[in-house]
Design brief:
With about 140 residues, the chain is mainly α. Among the domains are: about 70 residues; about 35 residues, no CATH class. The chain contains 4 helices and no strands. Helix 1 runs antiparallel to helix 2. The longest helix has about 35 residues.
Length: about 140
């Protein structure tokens, strides 16, 4: 018997991972795969919109139309959109890393200890890479 593939598994729309299930069973992997790929697609679309907004603001700024206040506003828009774009790119990298971890079977397990991160934490923060206790310890150390 061939195992189910989490990438192609169709889940009930009401499905949510439960503690009673085997940790990171195929259904849970499928759930997180679908969640992460949806977030990735949304970020890619948002990034396109942000870049278009930057291009438009740059075009207005360089067109010579408007006064100093207008130009200042355009510069602020550009800076804000570039920060948003940088944030989105960082988030995309984290999502890609999480998808790689799903692929290699380490998703949901701490990169520090190898322990289960826990389904509740993964539901709250799908990009988590350490247990809550390890996160608290890292924060105490200022890392």
């Amino acid at each position: 018997m061939v195992g189910k593939n989490y990438k192609t598994l169709t889940l009930d729309p009401k499905y949510s991972p439960k503690k009673s299930e085997k940790y990171m069973c195929v259904e849970q992997k499928a759930y997180f795969y679908q969640l992460l790929t949806a977030q990735k697609e949304e970020l890619i679309q948002e990034s396109d919109s942000v870049l278009n907004a930057v291009r438009l603001a740059e075009k207005h700024e360089t067109s010579g139309v408007g006064d100093e206040t207008d130009n200042s506003t355009f510069e602020q828009e550009i800076a804000m959109n570039l920060k948003l774009s940088e944030r989105n790119n960082n988030l995309l990298k984290k999502i890609d890393t999480a998808l790689e971890r799903l692929e290699n079977g380490t998703f949901g397990y701490s990169i520090v200890s190898g322990e289960e991160i826990g389904i509740n934490r993964m539901l709250a923060r799908p990009l988590a890479t350490v247990t809550i206790e390890e996160q608290e310890e890292l924060e105490k150390k200022g890392l």
